[in-house]
Design goal:
The protein has one helix at about 25-40; strands at about 45, 55, 70-75, 80-90, 95-105, 110, 115-120, 130-135, 145-150. With about 150 residues, it is mainly beta. It has a five-stranded antiparallel sheet with strand order 7-5-4-8-9, with no helix packed on it. The longest helix is centred in the first third of the chain and has 14 residues, at about 25-40. Strand 4 (about 80-90) and strand 5 (about 95-105) form a beta hairpin. The protein is globular, with a radius of gyration of 20 Å. The chain has a single domain (about 25-150), classed as OB fold (Dihydrolipoamide Acetyltransferase, E2P). Bound molecules: zinc ion. The site of zinc ion has 8 residues, from loops. Zinc ion binds near residues 48, 50, 53, 64 and 67.
């Protein structure tokens, strides 16, 4: 049965379990980022051919010029904690054995940033502005979970 809903007042709650399948793709720019992470153990930012801005996460188009960004540039060195959260429960609300620090880190000269666990510091030690460096898994799988940060 199909109903044509024209107003949110016509919406009805439906209870029960719904099986939903999905497939997430990284896209063209994300594919390059994750391949470099896996194959070279490096972080790569997209570089705009016109304004030379670089972006993380990798993007296919420059948000200023709308130019296609096919070039990438390795991101090296330390970054700065721009924001963080202390996680004490997993997504299913199970208490974690130890708190996890999730840090959003921005790199010098790169627009945007990356979110990953910050290891090697106690939650009460984390500060905005703290310098950290990326740590990539010894045998990366090409997933964002290959990345974490440690104090610089
Ligand atoms: Zn640009």
């Amino acid at each position: 049965m199909r109903e044509y809903v024209t107003s949110t007042t016509q919406l009805k709650p439906v209870t029960g379990d719904w099986g939903v399948w999905h497939r997430y793709t990284h896209g063209v720019a994300g594919e390059k980022f994750f391949r470099a992470l896996k194959d070279k153990r490096e972080l790569t930012a997209s570089e705009c051919p016109k304004c030379k801005r670089t972006f993380l996460p990798a993007s296919l188009y420059c948000e200023d010029c709308f130019c296609e960004m096919t070039a990438t540039k390795a991101v090296s060195g330390a970054g700065t904690v721009a924001s963080f959260a202390i996680l004490r429960e997993s997504l299913d609300e199970t208490p974690l054995p130890e708190p996890v620090v999730a840090a959003f880190v921005q790199f010098d000269g790169v627009s945007g940033g990356l979110l990953a666990p910050l290891r090697g510091v106690k939650p009460e030690q984390v500060r905005i502005g703290m310098r950290v460096k990326p740590q990539i898994a010894a045998q990366p799988s090409g997933a964002i979970t290959d990345l974490s940060f440690v104090p610089a």
